[in-house]
Every structure is written in C-alpha cells, then in structure tokens.
Fold:
Amino acid sequence: MADAHTQTLGLIGDPVDHSLSPLLHGNLIHVLGVNCCYHAFRVRREELAEAVAGLRALGVRGVNVTIPHKEAVLPLLDEVSPEARAVGAVNVIVNQQGRLLGYNSDTAGVELALRRRGVDVRGCKVVVLGAGGAARAVVWVLAQMGAAAVHIHSRTPTRGERLASELAESCGKTELTVFPWEEAALARSLEGAALLVNATPCGMWPRHHESPVTGNFLGKGIVVFDLVYNPLHTRLLREAAGRGAQTIPGLDMLIFQAVEAMALWTGRRPAKEGEFMTEMRTFLSKELQGYA
Ligand code: NAP
Structure:
C-alpha cells in the first residue's frame, strides 16, 4: 500500500496502453520489496517538455521513455550518459534531487541477454538486421564487447549509412559496414558469422509467419538473437533452433533492460537473477498470448 514515502516511477510515451512495462516493473517492485509504484502516462509529442518539467515539480523518482520521445527528450535533460549519447536515445530518466539524468538501458539489456547465454563476440563477425533505434543499441554494444566487424543489412541503405557514420567514432576499432537487404548479400555476410541479430520488427505478431532470413542460411555454430519478443519463439528462432543454432529470445532483453532501469532508480537488483528471469519469462509469455 502507498504511504507518504512511496516513490513514483512510470513510463512516458504515446501510445502506452499496450506496454508491458507496468507489468514488468510491478513484478520487480514486488520482488525487490521497494516502496515504489509504477504508472503508464500517455504524453503527446507537444506535451513532452511540460511532462518532463512535471517530473521535477512532482518529485517523480524516474520514468521509462518510449516512442515517440526517446530522441526528443535528450535536450530536456541535465545530463545524458555516454551510452545514451552514443546511441542517440534515452529510455530511462532518473530524478536525482531535481537533476534529470538520462540513460539507455536497452544497451544493458542487449549485453546481458548475450553474456548470460555465454555469447562472446570478441574478434568475431556479427550480422545485424535493421538500422533503427534498437539496431543502434545493438551495434554499439557489440562494439563495446569487442566484435571485429558488424555487417548491417538495411532495407533503407541511407538509414544504415547514417547509423554507421554516426556510431563509427564510439565503436572504435569495430568495422561497421552496410549491405543491401538482399538474399545473396545476406548469405555472404552469414558465412563465418558468430552471431545474427534481428533488430527489425519482421516476424512480430500478427505477421508472425514471416522471417527476415530463410533457415537455409543458418546452422550450428551461429547464435541467433531475435529482438522481437512477441511471439516468444519467432519463426526465425524456431528455424534456427531446428538447424542446431543457439537462440536467444527478445524477451530476455526486455526483462534485463527493466532490471537495469530499476537498478538505476532504486539501486536494487533481484538477488536470484536466474530464478527471477525464469519466473518472468513464464509470466510474460502467458501475457503475450493474443497480445496486440
Ligand atoms: P525502428 O526504429 O522503427 O527500426 C526498425 C528497422 O527495421 C528499420 O531499419 C526498418 O527499415 C527495418 N524494418 C522494418 N520492417 C522491416 C521488414 N519487414 N523487413 C526488413 N526491414 C524492416 O524500430 P526499433 O525501435 O529499432 O525496433 C525494432 C524491433 O526491435 C521491434 O520489433 C521492437 O519491438 C524490437 N525491440 C525489442 C526490444 C526488446 O527489449 N526485446 C527493445 C527494443 C526494440 P526501414 O528504415 O526501411 O523502415
């Protein structure tokens, strides 16, 4: 039950009515036993500045930021973390005694989803599909993890080129190259690749019968990470697993980015991470059945 010390957390975006964040954070608040509540706030584009000022005025402890505000919110904050600056998007705001600090917890989500499954990309070639916001976080993390080369396949080449040029400096020695969205080019990129990451919505419900890659190109020796989390087992992941590839579901990233956000707000993480992940995967995959 809320009392005078309850800290307010939440989500700002538009739309927010189908977000899983209130469920995820509600569970985290329960597991951690912290005195917080979490609300979804619909904030229209033209109301963003007022909403951000309201966080300060009301002493809201922190919020997640989602579409369409992840980029627009940067200039409204007092400080932006290096990873959020590099990726160009903030998805977590922490209110530190009136100073608003912006972070990007998708980067931690990507890194933990890979590391906890034992994926090491040091010196490896990785293939990333897509050049949107999620792809930016993925490419940046892969570079920090020491990938030698990232092949970015983008349906809109100019978007891919922009991603590669804007991230080049923060990606250091990792070579970023953009390729067209063509089967032959993709087949060449996948030869000898250690990891394939789908950072497009291709395969997402209700178009769950689609896959960005035909199973023929996948096999043992490659890890396939699909950021799409609805359905839990996308066609891409099912076909890859059928050919002996290790697979990582997008739900892992979703849960890890929430854990990271909660750690930024409260300083607390679930003591038994493995148990928490298993419970949340089961709980959320039930919630996702029939989820639009
Ligand atoms: P975004 O900014 O809209 O970018 C989407 C990218 O995918 C663009 O490069 C777009 O190309 C490309 N694309 C879209 N449909 C495609 C198709 N049918 N075939 C080929 N390319 C296609 O979206 P985002 O925020 O990066 O999100 C991408 C996906 O990641 C979504 O499914 C989202 O739900 C998922 N995601 C998951 C998590 C998680 O925690 N698991 C976190 C963030 C995002 P164009 O530029 O040509 O349109």
Q: What stands out?
A: The CA atoms of residues 131 and 162 lie 9 Å apart. The first strand starts at residue 7 and ends at 13. The mean pLDDT is 95. DSSP finds ten helices and twelve strands in the chain.
